[in-house]
Every structure is written in structure tokens, then in C-alpha cells.
Amino acid sequence: MDWTDLQHFLALAREGTLSAAARSLNVDHVTVARRVAALEASMSLKLVDRRPRSYELTEDGKRLAKIGAPMAETAFAVERAALASKSEIGGEITISAPPSLANLLIAPRLVRLRQQHPGIRIKLIGEKRTASLNRREADLALRLSRPTEPGLVARKIGYFEFALYGSPDYLKATPARAFAFVAYDSSMDEVPQQRWLMRFAGAREIVLRTNDLENQAAAARTGIGLAALPKFLGEPDPRLERHDVGGRPVGREIWLVLHRDLRRTPAIRAVASFIESCLA
Q1: pTM for the complete prediction?
Q2: 136 to each of 93, 184, 220, 257, how far by Cα in Å?
Q3: What is the set of domains in the chain, with CATH numbers?
């Protein structure tokens, strides 16, 4: 039995879909499918039922997943121990962050980290999902709420506010009673900025729903309506103008998260310090 084949199968069992397993392993879904098939062949067992839109574990697959899960956790712990033992400030460090933070606050400043620590290579992943630091999907993460997973260390390093933005022409030509709005889709209905936007919009029309913040900003620039955007995105953009609504603005905390096994690793500490400086 090949450990890499088993690792891909365990990722599929844990994540539930080929695409999610592929993301967690940083490979494509074809590789996951091929590795699972290879494991089945080597063990002469059918581990998954292949359906048109999904893979379902067989009873043998469920038993193997249950037995193998602790092996995977041990392997992740070994990887963390190996990284923690390195005294040099170098190697590849993976950062997971919401796309807007990755694109606008971290990526433009990476040259500074490169100048300070040329031995460090950064893998920057802008993603909406929560990367697992326990499974080494990332070494450091920025999150908008304090994590609750065991084994993690978190520190609040920033805060940002939202405001309503639209194109200058739209705001000039449209009376407040006729405003239309750009919002998140229903999967984001419980986030604070969505609730704030919906309270302000009231019965007025939501003309676009999208879970992508850059899509919201792009739509607002065209004059389709107002979007609730972070001020760090809206304020520097000459194609957007803020519409003040009064009252206390809605905001989100920014938490820097890492696994406690890595908190004293020099390279991790250097990158963590750099991330904090990006939000200063």
C-alpha cells in the first residue's frame, strides 16, 4: 500500500468531495481520483461508489477512513515538528487569507518581506473557506472571527470598517429613496456587513447578489447600485464614492492564527510580524 494513495483517500473521506480533497492537498481532482483508484487496486477493495455527481464511501471505505484518520493526524504533527525544528529564517510559508485582504493588503507589500528575508518563499492563498492549520493547509491564516479549533493560537491584529459605495454619477443622479443595492448571496446572510446592508436597504431593490467582494465592487463602479465594501477597498478607488448613512459603522476584527506547535519557529515569527505590519 502506498502512503500517498492512502493520504489522498483520507482527504476524500474527510472533505467529502473530489474538489474539496484536491484543494486541501493542493492537487487537481483527477489526481485524487487516480490515487484513490490505485489504493483500491492495491488492496483489492472497493472503497468508494462512483456516482454521477459524487463519491460515496462504501462500508469498507468507512472502516478504512476511521482507522486511517489518526495516521493522517500523526503525519501532520510530524510535518509541524519538522518545520518547528528549523532554526533558519527560510523555506516556504503558506498564508491563507480572505481574498480582499490577500489582494489589497498583503500582496502589494510582499517585496518588503523579500528584502528583509530573501530566504523565505511565500505561498499566498486568497480564499473564502477556512483553511485547516491542523492539517497544514496553511501555516498562518487571517480570519475575521476568533477561531475555536483546538491547537491554534490567535491574536487580534486589526479591525476594518465597511461603508456604502457607488459610482459618483449614480450617487449624484439617484435620490436615496430610489437606491438599489448589491449584496452577498444567501450563504452570507449572517455576516455583520450583510445584516447591516439589509437593514439599511429595507424594502428597496437588491439588484445583484454575489459572494465575491470584488464582483460587488465592480458592479458598484458601473452604477448599478450601492455595495457595502471595506473602506480599505472603497476609499482609494476614484471610481467609487462613499455614501454616508450616519450611525455607528459596521466592522470586522482581523485575527492572525497559527498552530501552537509553530509559534516559536523563526520563519513563522518573521512572516507573522510582516503580516502585522501590513495591517498597521
Answers
A1: 0.75
A2: 10, 29, 37, 12
A3: 3-75 (1.10.10.10), 91-155+253-278 (3.40.190.10), 160-252 (3.40.190.10)
